Write the structure tokens for this entry.
Amino acid sequence: METLKGTHSRLNGIDLYHEEYIHPVSDKTIVLLHGFLASSFSYRKLIPYLMKDYHVITVDIPPFGKSGKSKGFRYSYENMAKTVAELIKSLDRENVFLAGHSMGGQIALNVVHQDPGLAQKVVLLCSSGYLERARRPLIWSSYIPMFDLYVKHYLGRTGVMGNLVNVVHDKELIDSPMVAGYMEPFRDRAIFAALSRMLRHREGDLPSHILKSIDTPCLLLWGEYDRIVPVSVGKRLAHDLPNSRLVILKNAGHLIPEEIPDEVSRHMRDFLLADN
């Protein structure tokens, strides 16, 4: 894959990392937003397919990947979406599409809710939906000194391998490079303090009355065996989003950009290149 050197930009008070994959002639740009506990790494198998038609941008959403883990940043979906929007505007690209996996889907929806004209279309890949804010006792606990150690211990109980087993349908897809790629961001201990703040700041997913006001065309792609965000969530989102269509993909789990990138890219291409 031909890529520009990854770029760190200071936007909205945080160090935001993104990578660009250049198409020689296309005037269309697709921005990829990853899910919780992931990074741009999760799109590495999908990008080669998308590069055939688009200029591709991947974003490491703070505090994940190579982006900042500042204690002064507000890790709400609203603020994450604002940061992504600032990046898109700073790059001065036209004909922009958004795609978000899991948590990234909620952030993509927040972007088009905040700025309806910024993206022409949105692709939701097993997007999170209808999750409420954390309970108050847990939020209050996040203020306890050294709470980040609890977060580290909690995530370490299953580890990266345990998480991957839960998100893919075919366990044979899990190999050592995959495990190493998802492990890499957690070698920086600062992420655990940032995750504590994310627990405190995350306001919950967009409610139905907001979703019903989003008129941006949306394609929803879902793995039929998704155990993290079940198909029932996709059906509910498709009902609430007025200009949307749901496609359920066979023999796939939650991590569809890795599991079936060829099929995902084919559906994305048909949707994004269509006139409506």
User: Anything to note?
Assistant: The longest helix spans residues 77-91. The CA atoms of residues 224 and 251 lie 7 Å apart.
